[in-house]
Amino acid sequence: MRSEFMQDVRFAVRWLAREPGFALLAVLTLSLGIGATTAAFGLVHGVLLAPLPYPDPDRIVVVREQTETGGENNVSWPNFEDLRGRVRGATLAAHTPSFETTVLGGAEALRPVVAVVSREFFEVLGTQPLLGRVFAADEQVPGGPAAVVVGESFWRRQLGGETDLQRLSLELMGDRAQVIGVMPASFSYPHGAELWTAIERTPASGLGSRTAHNFLVTARLAPALSLDVARTEMSAVMAEIREREPGISGAAVALHPLHTHMVADTRRGLLILLAASAFVLLVACTNLASSMIGRAARRRRELAVRVSLGASRARLIRQLLTESLVLAAIGAVGGLLLARVLVTALLQVAPDAVPRIDQVSFGGLVLGFTTFVTVLTAVLFGTAPALSATRLPPGAVLADSGRGTDSVRRRQGWSMLVGAEVALALMLLVGAGLLIRSLGNVLSMDTGFVSDDVVTVTLSLPEPKHTGEARVVFYDRLLEEVASVPGVTGVGLTRALPLVGLPTFGMFDVEGGEYGGGQGHYRVVSPGYFETMRIPVLQGRTFSSADVAGGLDVVVINQRLADTYFPDGDAIGRRIETAGMDAQGRGVYATIIGVVGDVRTGFTEPPPPAYYLPYAQRWDRMGAAALVVRTSGRPGALVAPLRSRIRALDADVPVEVATFQQRMGERLADRRFMLLVLGSFAGVALVLAAIGIHGVVAMAVSRRTREIGIRAALCAERSRILWLVSRGTMLSVLAGAAVGLAGALALSRVVAAFLYDVSTVDPLTFTGVAALLLAVAAVAVLLPAARATRIPPRSALMAE
């Protein structure tokens, strides 16, 4: 058996060498299909399937507060303390969402990603430091020694890989912190964190009330503790808390596996990409199957002779499948090389928010998947040609009879394959078309401000150099310096950039209002911010240099908040109580001095109620800020002057300068990534379908050359011959397009989460994609058909 297989392999290699053109095209087709599928699976495996790099990762869960309506929140610090230690067999840890802050003491001043964590954090995750240790007991009490654990990359890049940690210290968050440990490169939780400090150094009174949902909580469950039991016991604790504190929103606890929580936002997108790559592979297989059927038909006489000499049909089928397997194996080698290139390119354009993207590699499981796909591909495109070539009795083939019957069956097979190619390509094209329409709508939507010609500068003031009201002094000087830069026509300061920055939620109450209060977004801004961003002022005024600490507390609200809480249009002069999510911040009433237009905080949600506070009165919320600078010239020309002016004021303030359009591009990275990959796959599928259709018609022309010559000799019109040659294929294309449209209608809901202001059954997209595919198919059909009409009758009659 083995010798027969090796004999078939050698025969297949010789056969491919005799037809180098076909072999090259087939290998390229397979390389595209297998390479795309392998690259997509590599991403899915690295992000979604590979286990987390922690001991027993399936025992680590994320704890969330659950409301009566089923909503979920982060956990407040007092609630975390009540939960901690109450569930036997569960170890709980809390940490803040990761954030950027200024750090000094390394090779340069910079803003790395920092997480503030509780004492059980490293125990829950179970990862030991690469060097040094984690926090000691005395470093986790209010006022205790400041310590910091750093990631390996930060340690090597900023600290020179110094192994004597006693010589290393960093200045962050107002403290000179001793570097006590280095975590391995595989440890990066929460996502992107490079430094970790201890929560417990902050007094509990400064960590917020039960209404301040500021902390992410993870738990490690003992092997004997099931998820359901842990959830029940934690929910019982929450019920006790709610009974004591009836005003809180938490009614129960929801538990999610850590892996599920980490990849929740990327799972759908990556699975869509894997499915799209599978479509490309299927298009490649149908393309090759149609070509192989035609070539197998040429070999019927050879195969019939072998049957007459005693070869069984099963033996011939095995030989033909071996040839397909050899072809697929060569294509797999090219596919693996292409997959590596594709993954490298995808990693360059993948959004930074994709977790575990650094885990993508070509390990044993990915190679095993490629092997499986290779064998499956060989079966898919090789079975039909093998069965077709060995179907007829050898006597009929040798006598050149039965030809008409076989020709009809073969044409039917080709028609089905052409229809399948068209249907698959059309479904991919519709998905890409919907994403293109969606992205176009996002880029053209009314954001509520004008971002053209705006440069942004994000910065974070190091403490204790800039603390308290000293921040206001620095920001005032900064605004003056930037305003004096040639070409600057406006400058403002904000705690968070609109649309592209992280929104800040805040509670508010309307004084004496029948509508009470609610929750909205708030921003702390400077005078000049609204003018620079060209946010329209609808009533009253915005902030001025007179709105300072110690003066009248003032606030500007947006149109949405005014319409909701002041429907009679009497907002100016009224007062609202503003705070963050923490009820401890209550008691400050601010007078409404102006109403401005609504500004979007997200690409798919309508503008929420929002209010703005002057930075001179809320300097405590302005440790980190962003400048917005409008220029009359080219925005890129401002980058160097802005850097130099800020460094002249304080070289210890790291800055990141980018145009607002670049910030928009970063926020839209997930949509662009999905569009880029799905669009590329759709384009490949379209090209493969066009090549397949062209090949089918060309094959049909070659098989019917004598018939075409006879018709031409009998003075048949060229248009009649053209229709005769192209009719069957175009009917198959139309049938495939109909099936593809039906499939696209069903599958378009899969990309619904990535769409903005576009229906999943958008008629413009569906008709446009169908028209494009039919036009490409028509060209692919008419080119060989037109060549057939130009064959001289004498040459056609002598062809056989």
What layout of secondary structure does this protein have?
Blueprint: H1 2-18, H2 20-49, E1 60-66, E2 72-73, H3 77-83, E3 90-95, E4 99-100, E5 103-104, E6 113-117, H4 121-125, E7 131-132, E8 147-151, H5 152-158, E9 169-172, E10 175-183, E11 195-198, E12 216-221, H6 227-244, E13 252-257, H7 258-298, H8 300-308, H9 313-349, H10 364-389, H11 394-398, H12 403-444, E14 454-460, H13 470-483, E15 488-494, E16 505-510, E17 517-525, H14 529-533, E18 537-540, E19 554-558, H15 559-565, E20 575-578, E21 589-596, E22 610-614, E23 624-631, H16 639-649, E24 655-659, H17 660-667, H18 669-703, H19 705-713, H20 718-747, H21 763-789, H22 793-797
Parallel strand pairs: 6-11, 8-10, 17-22, 19-21
Antiparallel strand pairs: 1-2, 1-12, 1-13, 3-12, 4-6, 5-9, 7-10, 8-11, 9-10, 14-23, 14-24, 15-23, 16-17, 16-20, 18-21, 19-22, 20-21
Helix pairs in contact: 1-9, 2-7, 2-9, 2-10, 7-10, 7-12, 7-18, 9-10, 12-18, 12-20, 12-21, 13-16, 18-21, 20-21
